[in-house]
Amino acid sequence: MIALINPFQSHLVSRLGKIYNRVWPPLSLANCAALLEQQGHQVKIIDANALRMPPEKLPAELDGCERAFVCSSDLDRWQCPSIDLRPFLDTVEHVRPRAGELYILGAHGTVRPKEILNLTNARAVVRGEPEGTVSEICSGKPLDQIKGIAYANNGGVILTEDSRPVDLNALPSPAFHLLPMDRYQYEVLGSRFTLLEGSRGCASRCRFCLLEMYGLGVRRRTVDRIAAEVDRAVRLFGVKTAYFMDLEFTVLRKQVLELCEFLIAKRYDFRWTCQTRLDLVDPFLLRKMREAGCSLIHFGVEAGTDSLLKRVNKQISIEQITEGMRLVHESRIDSACFFMLGFPGSTVEEWDQTIAFAKRLNPTYALFHIATPYPGTAMYDEVACCNRGALNGVLFPEACLQGEELRRLKARIRKAYLEFYLRPLYIGRRLARGNLKSLAGQVKLMVGYLS
Known about the structure:
The protein is of the alpha/beta class. About 40% of the residues lie in helices and about 20% in strands. The chain has helices at about 25-40, 50, 85-95, 105-110, 115-120, 130-140, 225-235, 255-265, 285-290, 305-310, 320-330, 350-360, 380-385, 405-420, 425-435, 435-450, and strands at about 1-5, 45, 65-70, 100-105, 125, 150-155, 155-160, 185, 190, 195, 200, 220, 240-245, 270-275, 295-300, 335-340, 365-370. The strands form four sheets. Strands 2-1-3-4-5-6-7 form a seven-stranded mixed β-sheet, with helices on both faces. The protein has a six-stranded parallel β-sheet with strand order 10-13-14-15-16-17. A hairpin with a 2-residue loop joins β6 and β7. α12 runs parallel beside α14 (about 405-420). It is globular. The two termini are about 40 Å apart. About 45% of the residues are buried.
């Protein structure tokens, strides 16, 4: 038996790094499981996070386990993984004695393979997207013949050649039948929730963004494949809400319009969200998306001045962001905008300008985060070169700042949430909409973040 394990996260918001740990399906594990079943393996996905299963209960689930794969960050966290490794390492500690062979998946091992290998004493660490590599490992190939892994050898660590990009259209449908599908939800969208994928990769190269899991370029699924997976999720698993996890969903505009036409024709009881850029929307596209069931769009705005946007290579202007948000408001689709404070070299005045810009944009939801210098990003290299003290010798530093500056930054982010969400006009608008369930979920998120 092969076990694929998603660790339990005891807190809705990580205490270190303030990352939301939502109960979302581990899509890359479901992809791996589907491939392995196709090849005749007996597979079990243990989504300890969805089942609220602490690490000490995992050994009882591993009878007859020949290989166990523990995931430090699934597909929804490839771009911004939690820097708090404790839940993952606690899981590894309890799994290792009962697994015939232990392997590690996720972004952490991809950017820090030697260190994660040493921390976990795993047989190997899978680097990059896992599907093809997991399949090769379970076929029994010798490790030195498998691309995209790191493994210990004679006191050293061997990094094999990078794996080839996964052909998304060749992947079987995710093994949702191995997941507790009734457990997943997105508090601002609804229950009976899942993740879907229309493309993988990103055409942009922002300095702060971790893309090591995706490789270069953008690979897309055919509309027929995406439509078939939506239909399967709705009909067989009762899915009513979903997040298309593409990093820039509308960059493939023609594909999105074709998918919208399919959803409009089907008239499912199905609402969905996606992530894209504010310079990649237009009135016709937004109208079709809304008609097709899109009720929320995520946008990475990040900064509130043109100079700061240019420094982080966002390749968009304040004017373009403002115009894009105007179109979104007119479309009556909800919006969630993400902002970062604490970029290298940024000033307190620029933090305040970003917060003020968030208020002017007035999205349905605003999220303010510390700019985290993930290893593998240009921002990390910049901090390593100019402010090594901020890294503090840790594998995954929390911020580009340290000491009193970091404390000031955290206080400013806390204040940003209060300033944005306690505006009388904002509160009045949210109450007027009458969706008290969504509002309750929003309040829960905010309390979790500020606590």
